[in-house]
Each structure stands twice: as C-alpha cells, then as structure tokens.
Amino acid sequence: MSRQAKGPLHGGPQPISRRPNNIAVASAPPPLRRHRRAGEQGAIKGGHLLQRRACDCDDAAPAMALLPSPTSCLCHHRAAPFSPAAASAQARPRRGTLRVAAAGARSSPTAAPMEARPAAVGRRRCECFDLHQQMVPYAEAYAWQKSIVKRRIGLLDSSRDHSDTLIALQHPPVYTLGSDSNEDYLHFNKEDAPFEVHQIDRGGEVTYHGPGQLVMYPILNLRYHKVDVRWYFRSLEEVIIRALKSAFSIKASRVEGLTGVWVGDQKVAALGIHGSRMIVYHGLALNVTTDLTPFQMIDPCGIKDRGVGSIKQILQKESQGRETDDILLMDIAYDSMVKEFAELFQLDLDTSPDCNFQEIRKLQR
Predict the structure, then answer these.
(1) pLDDT digit string (tens) for 256-296?
(2) C-alpha angle 171/177/181, rounded to 5°?
(3) How far apart are CA 43 and CA 303, in angstroms?
(4) Measured distance CA(280)–CA(25) in Å, rounded
(5) Are 73 and 331 in contact (CB under 8 A)?
C-alpha cells in the first residue's frame, strides 16, 4: 500500500483520483455498550495472558496462562466459513438492534419494524456487525459495503444519514489490489494465482487477507467527524496503536512516509480506503494469528525492504515460543479494537449479529 497522503477528501462523484497512503477518492464516551457477550476482557502483559474473559456459560473468569485450553468453553468456536442460513438461525435478538434488509439496504415490506436505540448524548450512533470469528468471502463483504454506501449517499441530501457503520470479520485467503496497483508487486501470474485476486476501488497496492487477520470496515460520514482524509488515516492508525498497547503491551508506531502500523520493521496492520461524497469505506487489517507465508508471494503494499508481522508472532517471541490460544487472541484483539475505535471517534456502538448476506446476493443479481 502506498507511502504518502495528500489533500482533503473532495465531495461529489468524480473519476477516481489516486492518492498515496491507500486513498482513492471518487468525488466525534460513556462506557462502550456491549450486546455481544457478557464478561471480562483478558489482557496479555509481557507475553503472558493474565486473565481470560468469561463466556456466556462461565460463572467466573478464571486465570490462565498463554496456552491453549485443553477443554475450551463451548461458547468459543474456531472461525468457520460464513453460512447465511446458519447466521440467521443463530442470531439472537438483542436490545437496540436495528434490523435492516440487505445488511444496510432499505427494509423490505415484511421486515419487522424496530426502532434504533438512541445514541448516547453527544455521541453519533454506529451500528456494529460483529463477525470477527467468521469467514466472509471477500466479494460478498465488498458488495455489502457498497450497498451500505449507496443507501447512505441517498440519505445525504435530506440530512437523514444518522448512523455510521462498523463491520468486523475475517476473510478466506485472498489478494486485493487497489484501483491503480502495480502488478510488478505480484510474484505470480495473475491468471494462475495461488488464491483469489480482486482489484477494487481503494487506494494503495497489493495486500493479503486471510484467516487469523482481523478486518474492520468502518463506513463513516466524515462530515460528522472531521473532513480531513489525513486525519482519518492517522486516527485509524491510532486506534490500532492504542489497542495493541492496552491489550497486549505491544509498543507499535507509525513510520514516516508510510501508512499502517509497525512493530520494529514489521508491519502488523495495513490500511486502505475509498471515499465518495465524504463517506469513507474499506478500512484496516490487523494480523492477529495470521499465517504470514502468503505475504511472501507479494511485495505487501509495494514495500520491498520491510517485513510483515503478527500479534501471535510477537507474543511468542517475547515468551520464548510458548503456544497461544488463537481464538482467545482474536477475541481480545477485537474487544480492544472496538473499544478504542468507539473512544477515538466518539461513537456509541450498537452491536448487531443480523448480517443478511442472502439479501445482498439478491441485490447483486
């Protein structure tokens, strides 16, 4: 992904203008409200897990070492391929959940009416779709984002765009390229790629998404935050830096002239966005327990002289190779990221499990 950011976000539909820093442009708490799970957040200090968060079926949150549990709680499941039918069957009604058809499209005539929970005073509401332990195919997640953006652009002129959106998920292995990516950064023939390859409308160069990587797609109207793309980029980086420090005691930083978040000379998180009429989407990818091997097939973000790292890799190095509980690491990373995201952007998160990908497929036809 690219190396510099220049200029503010311009409104109005225009041809995509290439911006360094992964920007392609077409044209501000009270305690975080949690509906997803009850329980405590574990933390890792100096490579050792101090506390495991209680599950719905736990009576307490027992202490445990940074080791896989031989009898993991039934509430935890390893990331599995996304199943729209299963998601609908397993979705539990949650207080304040806004049910909408097509995951952000207009409600269907048969949709059960439900009013959105009012946002906390001084906070803009943000609907949060928590799929952080599920695999969602890239093409479907991309179409989902586009459908939400299209709907919200339609609300701008009447000043009815009252809520932002946050989607958290994982992807099966996939390479994505920005709108003007240089294919010289691929170490394989695009027609005979090891995984799916998608060229999309974000800025920046090629990157990899796969299991163990926490992907977060904020869809924000910058009119309600700050109309400054560089500020938005730096803010996303700050969310990651704070989350790594608070949850794992990992000291991360920025690198002058580059985007993303770094630990030493290893990039642990990549960023890329696109904007239309000051509504920005795409977002960030944080390597939690990611297999880093597929990065060897590309020059990630067009950078040849630096490496890629993960939270798991860093913690194992600090703990002399001790094994980690991958599911727990992902849960802790997610909890810390959404907490810092809500704090920095001054948002009132309303978490929803109702992600209707079947309706999205219909809209694509």
Answers:
(1) 999 999 999 999 999 999 999 999 999 999 999 999 999 99
(2) 165
(3) 32
(4) 9
(5) no
Please give the pLDDT value at position 359. 53
Taking the C-alpha atoms of residue 359 and residue 362, their distance in angstroms, rounded to an integer, is 5
Give 62's contacts (C-beta < 8 A, 6+ positions apart). Answer: 52
Q: Name 186's bridge partners.
A: 298
Cα 162 from Cα 225, distance rounded (Å): 13
Strand 174-177 to 207-209 pairing: antiparallel
Q: Give the tokens for residue 223.
A: 């009119």
Instruction: Output the CA–CA distances (angstroms, integers) from residue 157 to 108, 152, 278, in the order listed.
Output: 22, 10, 13
Tell me if residue 198 falls in helix, strand or coil: strand
Distances (CA, A) of 161 to 31, 100, 225: 24, 15, 13
Residue 283 CA from chain centroid, whole number: 6
Catalytic positions, written as ranges: 301
- pTM for the whole structure: 0.70
